[in-house]
Structure formats: C-alpha cells, structure tokens
Amino acid sequence: MNLQNESKRRFLINVGTISGSLVLGFKAPTLLASEKDEFPRELTHWILINEDNTTTVRIARSELGQGTFTGLVQLVCEELESDWDTTKPEYADVNMHIKRNRIFKSMSTGGSRGIRDSQQYIREAGAFARNLLLMAAAEKWNVNVDECYAQKSHIFHKSGKSLKYSQLLSLAKKIKFKSDFIKLKNPYEWKIIGTSPQRFDIPDKVNGKQIFASDVILPKMVFASIMSAPVFGAKVKKIDDQVIKDDKNILKIINNETFVAIVSNNWWRANNALNKIKIEWTKTDNDNVSSKSISEFLTSGLETESSPIARRDGLPEFEFSKANEIIENTYSSGFLNHATMEPQNATVIYTKNRVDVWCGTQNGESTAVAASKISGVPLEKIYVHKHHAGGGFGRRVAHQDFTEQATKIAMSMPGRPVRLQWSREEDMKQGRYRPVSKIKMKAGFDKKNNLKVWSAKQSDQSIAITVFPKWVKNGIDLINTRCFRDNPYKVSHFLNEYSMRNTHVPPGFWRAVAHTNNPFARESFIDEIANKANKDPYEFRRDMLSGTKDIYLLDAVADKIDWYRKIENFHKGIAVVDSYGSYTAAAVELSVKNKKIEVKKVVVAINPGYVVNPDAVKAQIESGVIWGLSAFMHEEITINNGKVNESNFNDYPILKLSETPEIIPLLLPSGGFWGGVGEPPIGAVIPALANAIFKSTGVRVTSMPIRKLGFSYI
Questions:
Q1: Which of 76, 461, 495, 562 could bridge to 455 as Cys pair (CB 3.0-4.6 Å)?
Q2: Burial class of residue 578, CB neighbours in 10 A (0-12, 13-18, 19+)
Q3: Measured distance CA(346)–CA(32) in Å, rounded
Q4: Which stretches does DSSP call E strand in 529-623?
C-alpha cells in the first residue's frame, strides 16, 4: 500500500464526514512553499517552523497600536495548533511579496480590515499547515492520519508517541497535497480565538525598546528637514540662503520646486537652518481661499436644485409637497488632521540598482510603489523595512508623500542613508485632511406628528475622486455617502442627495472618515425628529430599527447607562451607527453648567460578529471614545489666504487625559460574520454627546468643534 496516498484518502474522508465542520473552498498550491526551497524553514509562505520548534507567523498587515500583530497570530495559532508561548510574528517581506506575485494578498491596513479581510485565508493557512504535519507524521509512523492529532506544536499518535513540528518539517514540505477542501474549526472549538493573551507589541512600547522609524540609525546617516508650499499647489520661486551659506554643518540644500529640504549631520541643525532661510513661493488661484469661502462653497452645494441621488426610497419629493409640517437643520464639520504622535518620516538608501526604505507605513506595497515611481528603480529592486507606526489613522495608507520626498532627497546622495523627518509644524500644515462637510437634514410630518418623509443632502469634498476614482459613481462618492446610503432606519420615503465640492486642500482617509460627520448629522436629527413627534429618543429609535441587529446594542447601552433614571443636573444622549461591517451604539451621561461640560460616563456597545481578542477590542472602543470626544470639542484645521493656520498642538488642541471620562465598553458578538473594530466606536459617540448636550441645555449643536461655540470640558 502507498502510505502517502492512503493518508491523503483517509484525510479526505475525515474532512467530508466530521459533523459540524466548516468545509471551505481552498486551493492549496497558493500556500505551498517555493519549489526551489529558498526558504528551508517555510512550511507555507505564512508559516515558518524553526529548528528549536518555535513558530513564526508572517504578518502582511501593519501594527499601528490596534493589536493586529497579536490577533492575526491568534487566528493562525488556533488552526495550526501551535504552542502560543513559542509562536511569534514578523512582518512579511514586501520584496518577497512582489517577487512571488503578491503572495501575501493585501498589505493595506485601513478601513478596520486588518483582521476581517485576512481572517479567512490566514486561518486556512494554519489549517493547511497543520494537515501537512499530520500527514507527515502518519507517513513516518505508517499509520492512518485519523489516528493522529495536533497539540502545542507536536503531532501525537493515539498510542502516546509524539513528534515535534520541527522534526516533521522536511517530510511535510514534500507532501504533494492538492485537495480543494480544508476543514476549519467551528467557533465552539476555539481555544485561542476569543481570549486575550499578552499582546506582542506592548512590552517594548512600555519599556522603551521599541524602535520606530523615527528611531532608525544607520552608518553614515544624514538627516533632512523639509518645507513644502504653504499654499497647496504653489511652487518654489526663489530661495535666499545667504544666512546659512557659511554653515559647514549644512551638507545640501535641495530645491525640488514643490519643496525645499536641507540635509545635515543632525536633524535639529537641518530644521534650524530651514527655518532661517527665506523661501518665496509662486502665486496661485488659491491664495485668497479661506475657511469662510470654503463654507460658502459648501453652502452653494446645498442650494442646488438638483444633485446626484445616492438613494431614493418611495416618493420623497411628493411626500414633502403634502407634508403638514417640515423641520430642517444643517450640520457642519471642518477639516481634521491625523496629528499622529510620530510625524511622517522615512529613511532611504538609493542606488541605481536598489532602493531601501525604512518607515512606519500602513501599506508596505504602496511604499514600495512610491519609491519605485520616484527612483525609476524596478519594483522588484525596492526593499521596504517596516516598523510599527506611531499612529496612522489613515495618514500612512495611500498617501506616501513622505516616502516620495525621502526618495527624491536620497537620490541626490546615492549610497548614503538619508532620514527625512517632518517637523510637527510640517505635519500639521501638510496633512491629508478629513474633508469639510455640510449636511442639510429635512423631515416631513403628517397632522398627527408622524414622520412620513426624510432627506439628507450632502455637500462635501470627495476623498475617492483623488485616491480611488472607481469609488465615485455617477458623481457620488461612495465613501462619503456612507451612513445615509445604508441608513438602517425604517421610513417609507427617504432621499439622499450628494453635491461634490472639491477644494484645493488635499483630503484623505481619517479614522472612520464619513462615519464621523455623517452620524453627527443623522443621529442628531433623529433626536430632532423624536422631539417633534413627542417621543423618547431611545424608544423612537427602537421603533424605527425594529428587526435589525442594532436593537439589542441600543438596549444594552440604554440599560447600562440606566436610561430612565433621573439624576439632578445630569442628562443622557444615545445614538446607533453601523459601520465597517460592525454594529455599534453609544450612550453618554453628562452635565453642562455655564457651557462647562462634565462627561460622567460613556457606554459603547459593539457587535463585530466574532471577537478575536477581547482586550484589544475594549482598547479600540476606549480609543474611539477619546477620538470622538477630541474631534467633537477641540479639533479643526482652518484656512486663511490658502494656507493652513494651525501649526502645532498649541493651536490644534486634542483631548487631555484629565478630560477623559469613565468609558464602559460592551462586547456583544453574535457570531456569523467578521466586522471591524478600529473605527466603528467613533461614529455613535459624537452624536450621543450632542444629544446629551441638547437634553441638558436645550441647545442643538449643529457644528464641530464646539469649543468655537464657547463650550469646554471640565
């Protein structure tokens, strides 16, 4: 008997007959190691079995503090049955990814997709590797594979004998298993998924050992500081550098038309010199643009008689014409910067035949493409050395301007490492900002104050048109219309119109993007509708969300915050938002006295389907609450004479630790799907705050940040 063939046969029988198994389409050859065996420890391209029987899992996504490094390893470890204590992650090599025909799937980390878009194939990789090891052990022992099982990086036989994974690696790599099916565990079998082991990224961040891209030091490294045109689109007209002409510490002054950079043997010297020289920029058509003119531009979008329609249910125009009463309000929000703790930076070594890039990026492949585009060096000769980023929030995904700039500077000094480090001021003035927005909400009622028709007309700047044009359909930005296009509330007549109003200020993906400003308008206006209908806002939402997954989340936050309990001087607000494949609800309790806001408690419930690491999800809820509180109260980028006014945290304030309230995260996974967790909590927090302020003061907040209305946190 051919034992290998018999093992395969028995394995296939088991896959097809075990009750309750998840049998999924799976093409094994895509996970096999290279036939040339260039990587002797590689069992699949995701998984390395080391000589000491430890396991290394390659991670294509980026660790930005959200816990992806740990969560993805949990998924692999679960199916592989490796020993958690000896299983570790490492970044998947970008160059290998490119040379092996994009073997690691997507390297992008954004849109709360790190886990949910990877979970299927990364679990399959673990299961496939486990079965190769099982088959190898069965062949070695001359037994049927169903007599063997995997546990803690060992294969055991029912007799009690065992082999380490490392002892089976060579044989496992030779097995030509080409089944189109692989069995994944049922959720009730999970032992690692759903637990909270210590995260891989936290210890070194706490003890100071973590090396970020801004910490990279290489032999003979030089440092560059940069200044781009203060008015987006302007170019360098003239440089007066006489003041630093005799400074021997200045190695190079680079005029690249769109920016000026100074290179020195020390970044402080480079930045100090940059601030001393005089740069004259060309005039542009945007020199007179201001926040006021942009606001007027957005208003004109709301006043257009007809705009592209993103969603129409029923006969909204007709119902408005016969409504007994109509209420309306306009909600606005400004540009927002990412304000990452670590300003943008990249270190590059350029030669004609190779480019190396060290950076904290949300997409290693995009970084490689940017370096290749600027240098002219083929993509397969670009080597990206990924580091954990000191914050991303969408800034380091598609926008690789810092990589392009660093590459241009390095090209002027071939063979020498050049670290480009943006100043905080440059980071503030050269962001890729969350777009400005105005949203006109409108509702019509019958004679009994029943809601009959509802509309949302948006006027904002498109992100997609500049980054992903395919996401613009018939003049509608499919990103910016979220929350309205997929409005879960049940109303027979609903209209969502969209007016695109692009400015010269570059837009970008900002954590949760449209699920910050759009829920602010929608969920605040739901409260307005409830108030008009003389109904409790929580109960009104329940009625309009009947039969949706949102109901029990809404109930959970209402129950946790004790919705009906009255506390003198304290009032509550509530909101619900679906986003990034998950369902969330938030409730806020606060008091307001003389516009001083004391936020006592914030409750956020989330249903992401499955939860991989509960502690990581709770941390994401907490950070989302802080993010929402900060945006609501403090943050805004303003424009004057075409330039960004804000320069640092003194004029772009963010939430302080002392302003942070008690945050209560509620994890309510239902199973059945995989949703995101990094961004969903933000959307519901902002309108819940606004609604609580209305309850407390009778003032309906319609614009952010509210510090401009005289409010502040205690």
A1: 495
A2: buried
A3: 33
A4: 571-579, 582-593, 596-607
Question: What is the DSSP code string of 286-302?
Answer: TTT--HHHHHHHHHHHH
Q: What is the mean pLDDT of the chain?
A: 94
Q: What is the CATH number of domain 213-283+344-421?
A: 3.30.365.10
Quote the CA–CA distance of 269 and 248 in Å, as a whole number.
11
Consecutive H or E run containing 95 = helix 94-99
392-422 pLDDT, tens digit per residue, is 999 999 999 999 999 999 999 999 999 999 9
Domain limits, CATH 3.30.365.10, in the chain: 3-204, 213-283+344-421, 291-335+433-713
Judged by DSSP in three states, 376 sits in: coil
Quick: pLDDT tens for 194-227: 999 999 999 999 999 999 999 999 999 999 999 9
- The whole-angstrom separation of Cα 171 and Cα 174 is 5
| Beta carbons of 55 and 82 less than 8 angstroms apart | yes
291-335+433-713: CATH architecture:
2-Layer Sandwich (3.30)
Contact status, residue 155 vs residue 133, Cβ threshold 8 Å: yes
Among residues 295, 358, 326, 396, the alpha carbon closest in space to that of 64 is found at 396
**What spatial distance separates the first Cα and last Cα of the chain, rounded to whole Å?**
79
Note the CATH number of domain 3-204: 3.30.365.10
pLDDT digits (tens, 9 = 90+) for 22-52: 333 333 334 444 456 789 999 999 999 999 9
